[in-house]
Amino acid sequence: MEKLRAARSAGAREGGKDMRWWGFVAGAMIILALAGGCASKDGAGGAGPSARDVQEFHAAVADDDAIIVERLLAAKPALANARNEQGQTPLQTANQRGASEAADVLRRHGAKE
Question: How many other C-beta atoms are found inside a 10 Å radius of the C-beta of residue 110?
Fold first, then answer.
């Protein structure tokens, strides 16, 4: 059992699958949960993003996680300019946190300060 724990912590393979795969799966589950499956055919989404969607999106922006930001914007384009509880846009959050990659993604999706 100790060898298995050591292998997991080192990112080794177990049963031929990279343990990092589970990080990807967890990220995909977060995206699906936030997207809520409500995107319409025109990509505009259903109702506007919920307060939780906005909070989670701003957290991804603040973490400079450009991949998650890109995927969430693909699912819910309205997030690009969704203000958080402090009244900040995602682009303002990115600039404040020095999240340059997330800021680039936001600009490509038409985000405004």
Answer: 10
Give pLDDT tens digits for 6-57.
544 554 444 444 555 555 555 666 666 665 544 443 344 456 899 999 999 9
d(CA 88, CA 38): 25
End-to-end CA distance of the chain: 52
Place of tokens 């699912």: 75
Mean pLDDT within 85-111: 96
Written as one string, the DSSP assignment of 86-112 is TS--HHHHHHHHT-HHHHHHHHHTT--
Q: What does each C-alpha distance from 73 to 1, 32, 51 come to in angstroms?
A: 42, 12, 15
Is 79 within 8 Å of 73 (Cβ atoms)? yes
Task: Indicate the CATH number of 11-108 among 1.10.3470, 3.20.20, 1.25.40, 1.10.287.
Answer: 1.25.40
